[in-house]
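Reposting from the mailing list since nobody answered there.

I have sequence plus structure tokens for a pair of proteins and want to know whether others read the tokens the same way I do. The first protein:
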Amino acid sequence: MSTLGAVSLSTKTGSICSLVEIQPNPSLDEVLSQLVPPREFTKARFDNYLPSQEFPSQAQAVAQSKHFINPPGIRGVFSRSKPQPIAGIYLDGGFGVGKTHLLAAIWHSFKGQKAFGSFLAYTSLIGLLGFADALKQLSNYELLCIDEFELDDPGDTMLMSRLLSELGSRGIRFAATSNTPPNALGQGRFAAKDFAREISAMADRFEIVSVDGEDYRHRPIDGHTKPIDESQLEATLKFKVAEGKKVAVDEFDELLSHLAKVHPSKFLKLIEGVDALVLTNAHVLTDQSAALRFVSLVDRLYESQVPLSSTGIGLTEVFSTEYLSGGYKKKYLRAISRIGSLTSSF
């Protein structure tokens, strides 16, 4: 917050804080309690998913998701064997067609012990606890919902494939969605073949469900955000505080340095209670490790629907052309889309 100079505001209801000054230390119970749908999807149900008549696969996806939750039981007294429910369902499709809504609806409809998290949430949990202890904790659930199953990081993908295999052998079921970049077109919107290859040992026990359609929110895939003018920053902060908001204000590089010392599993705790975030002196990133940490933070900000803004340059511009065309381009394109959404709500 050093760039703010004399700006230090607080009221009985609103205040300014700095994430750099926070050392989050959530308990294991707190970390596990975060394995629920994001705020945006707390009310997501099958009956409020509105399939487009132009894309019949959406209504079919609803039916198949319901069928996954309530598989057929024993067909008769003289049946030779009890039908084995499928181990998992994989919702594969384009950006903005409601895959996460359906995944959350699956979670809400399932009656047993269940967990919901992004791909990042699960890999972060493994990183925090180690594979064996993470496996032990996740074995307590009957259903794991995995949003945006990533296939662009071989190490993480292999880790999750192993986790699914270990948990699947214990009878745990899975529901997952594809990780599709906003600018994907044609068959590039679908990742079923790659997913099946990565979970080869379990692929025949997963039902692949294709969900076609257009982005229902019609978000621009290459939107550009504008920074706040330095001269407007103080007035903007005063207005937010007067509204009773808790606004975190941090210098871009200082926050990135702080994130390097905070485990990604603790990012949700770091931003807990924050109503908006302003990053000052934003600039194009030249350190990919820092860029990927920022992507992880953006994911958590998006899950918590924390509005975002900056000075310097717009935050959609911080990823270089090199990064956007490299191996992690899906992560960066997703982050840009989410930054655009969070900035528009600031």
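The second protein, same order (residues first, tokens after):
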Amino acid sequence: MTLTLKPLAAAALACLVLQSPAGAANIDGPPVFWKISMYGNSRALTSGMEALAAKAAEETDGKFQIKIFYADQLGNSRENLDGLKLNAFEGAGICNFYHPGKNPAWMVFSLPFLPIGDPAVHKYTFKKMFEHPAIVADMAKWNAIPYASGLLPQYEIMGKGPAPTEIDGWSGLRVRAGGGLGDAMEKLGAINQTLSAAETLTAFQNGTVDAAAFPMTYAHVAFKINEEADWYTSNLAPGTSECGWVLNKTAFEALPQAYQDFLMDNRDLVLDTEQASYAAEDADNFKLFEETLDKITYSEEQTAEIRQLAAQPVWDDWIAANQDDFDAQGVLNDLLRYAEEAKTAN
């Protein structure tokens, strides 16, 4: 399913991209063609890199071409890091929980109930974390450089069958959720299913999964989960994941300095376009969900109990499992510190 950006997202993208006169070549350099490997089709998550590609062509008069290859054309979503290590392409979209063993420090991004629900806090925190030594080191093993977060919105869950309006309703439900979110669902009694986004619709149709956590709201629609679901959670807000963008280190270092500077100077373009696109999708999607699905809203007492069961205990488990390999406690502490800095600044 290829999505067309809603008018607000398109307008936001235009404002972000068209900052120089049409046809102006502001950056001189040689012809370069970059391939970016991406799972799934064009959607709000890819809008930022699409804006970057458009601006690269504009600024260089077509000399620096960046093309996104969708739907696993260049490699399986779980093998994009392997492709970068083999220099098969120049960049990729990756999702940390598709291959936790390959990027153990990146799993901090998927810990449940992190204090990053505000989009501005989320952007500041994850942008800072993309420069963190442990996050950089994870990618260095794969000849990759962290580039731009996907800034996925807070997840919510859609499912079929009886709605878990009470906390014990999650017991025994097969839930697609990754990383720490999956661990959190297990604390509530659910059975975690680690599926890629593209695999989830088929799992619903085959009856092998009961519910799925996705970024609210664009991803549920992009992968047609809402067409199979009966209900959705509206305020669980269990956290997010890092499905962002990394660059081939060898390819990046081979670029002329002007092209390197262009990429690094336009990370905010990617991030801001993504967030504008998510917001634009929400207006129509929330209306659609309320018209076609049963809405679950938990009370303050229920959400407090869920956090008590599934937040700090999962954080502690993650630290214990990783502390011998890297400073997991320090990585989490830094993320929380950046989130607090962002809140103070705002």
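Reply #1 (J.P.):
I read it the same way you do. The chain has two domains: 8-152+241-281, 155-239+284-320.
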